[in-house]
Amino acid sequence: MPTRSWTTRVSTSWNFIGRSQVEIEQARADWATGSRFGEVKGYDGGPLAAPALPPVPLKPRGRVR
Q1: Cα(22)–Cα(62) distance, rounded to whole angstroms?
Q2: Tens place of pLDDT for every residue, the chain, 65 residues?
Q3: Which domain holds residue 31?
Q4: Residue 47 within any structural domain of the chain
Q5: 9: which of 1, 23, 25, 44 lies 20 to 30 Å off by Cα?
Q6: Rounded CA gap, 64 and 34, in Å?
Q7: pLDDT value at position 2?
């Protein structure tokens, strides 16, 4: 399976990955409203709530190639 390398640094929070804090915040909001991510078939429970984002800016990680 081919791998794809990141060309920019990324931030992560919980299971969200983005190129900026704004992308992480949007992904978290989309998760909470159910507007962007699919459902897990066969799981009887409701969706897990994403934890609150930390009260500090997220730090981008990784290396730029």
Answers
A1: 18
A2: 556 665 778 887 888 888 889 999 999 999 999 888 888 889 888 888 999 999 999 888 877 66
A3: 8-38+55-65
A4: no
A5: 1
A6: 32
A7: 57
Burial class (CB in 10 A: 0-12, 13-18, 19+), 1: exposed
Count how many domains the chain has.
1
**Residue pair 4/56 in contact by the 8 Å Cβ criterion:** no
User: For residue 27, is it within any domain?
Assistant: yes
Of 21, 22, 29, nearest in space to 50 by CA: 29
What is the number of other CB atoms lying within 10 angstroms of the CB of residue 15? 11
Please check whether residue 32 lies inside any domain of the structure: yes
Read off the pTM: 0.71
Residue 13 forms beta bridges with which residues?
A: 16
